[in-house]
Automatic annotation (TrEMBL):
CDD domains: DAP_dppA_1. This is M55 family metallopeptidase. Coiled coil: none annotated. It comes from the Bacteria.
Length: 280
């Protein structure tokens, strides 16, 4: 059994502020260690649940956050950027399950470090008119490939968002949001035990239900993104197949995962035009 772990940072145990998760922040190095420990907890759970192979994708910011020499020795790692498929790089139909570690809720929610991919630059996103953030987009892309998302870990807002998107996914909160930069933290050992046990349960359950994997989806879907900057929307409208719905909102149609790949191009254009740090 092959398990894919997509690892973000904002939803990691103990982390609540920009300086915990941004390179150069005073607590970033400690944040890297905490992220590595959460990922190792998930890997241990996957192996206990019957996984023969685990691939981890470091998906946060520079995508060079995990401490390679401290990762579980059974792990293969996708590291660095640019990655054409970002948070789901190297995920394909040969994987039996996907686990999300350190995920956060979408922009506009009262979750710890909530945002959509680019901090304040992306105000809202929709997939087929359904409000969406990183959780929904990653889930939809994996499902389109025929890979079930089986577990997610982050704060309580992220877990709630995942359950609303797909209530079959097992979740365990590692902290409870009190504001966008504040949380009540679970003890680290307790949080990581929850990650391990929940992942093990999810993988075991998936192995027993291999006949119920989602069917690959090749139908077109509609992505809409509302940007803070009208300049971004105007430039993106120059991409074939992209339409400017209003001054700040663009829409496009394509099958997944091609739609996820195209959104990566959207972000490259936005970064080039704005160059602003997130969490302002």
């Amino acid at each position: 059994m092959r398990v894919y772990v997509s690892a973000d940072m904002e939803g990691v145990t103990g982390l609540v502020g920009a300086e915990d998760v941004q390179m150069g922040g005073r607590d970033y190095e400690r944040g890297r260690a905490m992220m590595t420990e959460d990922v190792n907890a998930a890997v241990s759970g996957a192996l206990q649940g019957g996984a023969a192979e685990v691939l981890v994708n470091d998906t946060h910011s520079t995508m060079r956050n995990l401490l390679v020499d401290q990762l579980h020795p059974r792990v293969a790692l996708v590291r660095g950027k640019p990655k054409p498929m970002g948070m789901v790089q190297d995920l394909d139909a040969d994987f039996d399950a996907m686990v999300c570690v350190g995920y956060h809720s979408r922009a506009g929610t009262l979750g710890v470090l909530s945002h959509n991919f680019m901090g304040h630059e992306i105000e809202d996103m929709w997939l087929d008119e359904r409000p969406m953030g990183e959780i929904g987009f990653a889930h939809a892309t994996a499902t389109a490939l025929g890979v079930p998302v089986v577990a997610l870990f982050g704060d309580d807002a992220a877990c709630e968002e995942m359950r609303a998107w797909d209530d079959t996914v097992l979740t365990a909160p590692v902290k409870y949001a009190r504001d966008r930069f504040a949380a009540r933290l679970r003890p680290a050992a307790e949080a990581r035990e929850a990650i391990t046990q929940t992942t093990a349960d999810a993988v075991r359950r998936t192995e027993a239900r291999t006949a119920q994997r989602p069917a690959p989806d090749t139908t077109p879907h509609t992505l809409a993104v509302r940007w803070q900057s009208a300049s971004v929307a105007q430039q993106l409208a120059g991409i074939p197949g992209v339409t400017r719905h209003d001054d700040r909102t663009v829409t496009t149609n394509a099958p997944l995962p091609a739609l996820f790949r195209l959104f990566g191009v959207f972000m490259s254009v936005a970064y080039a035009l704005t160059g602003q740090a997130p969490y302002c």
